[in-house]
Amino acid sequence: MASTHSYLRPERHISSARVSCHSVPENTQTILKAKLSAILAIAAYNVAKTLPDLLEKIPYHLLDEVVVVDDGSQDGTAEAARNFPVTVIEHGSNKGVGAVIKTGLRRALDRKHDVFVIMAGNGKDNPQEIPRLLAAIDEGYDYVQGSRFVLGGKSENLPLFRRLMVPASALLYRLLTGFPGTDALNGFRAYRLHLLDDSRINLWQDWLDHYELEMYLHYKALSFGYKVKEVPVTKSYKHFDRGAAYSHIRPFVDWWSIIRPIVYLSLGLRK
Hints:
Elements: E1 3-5, H1 26-35, E2 38-44, H2 51-56, E3 65-71, H3 77-81, E4 87-91, H4 97-110, E5 115-120, H5 130-138, E6 143-147, E7 154-156, H6 160-177, E8 189-192, H7 212-223, E9 228-232, E10 234-236, H8 253-266
Parallel strand pairs: 2-3, 2-5, 3-4, 6-9, 7-10
Antiparallel strand pairs: 1-4, 5-8, 6-8
């Protein structure tokens, strides 16, 4: 059972000095805010060291709610999050990133938000780039994928295994769907919640509780003719020499978790 600590954000309490958002002109930010209700979900597992710095940089004025989903952390992650104007939802145990996203999506649907943004809480993603994702949503795209490899994107200290895995997965998705994507494994994304109204997309299946969910939705969005766009983002691993967890992915077991949605869906073994 998840426990929830809610923060109802009065926008006037957000200091302009604390929010930096130089990527999108002010008038565009106003349009984004007026048109759509957006929620940011942050996947958090033992990230007490990196989470405060990330939460300091969030452009709160563009978001209607920020939710930190603590997936059974044991290092005080939830306590660190409560020092900021965010909603904290705690899982009683570690359930997996797919379960984290489902929790964030339930919150988004309950609050009738229009747009869902998801990012990692371990400091690899730059929250100041959220306006780039929202701007693409405002242009009419349904599913916006962050990419470190398109023009304007940046990759810092990418580990060797990921240098091989990321382009290989991008090539596989390109062959299966025809979409010329570059960074399918990048978890920094935004999408319109009307995708979940599509009866062909069922994120609530039990087998999608770990790394499968992100790849499942990615494949579905690319396969069903939704408007998809990649936007430039930064993915940085520079800070992991300070003791932060580089990755919770286990060799072989979780690699299969990442790959199997492509296998199952392309062969028609799962829906």
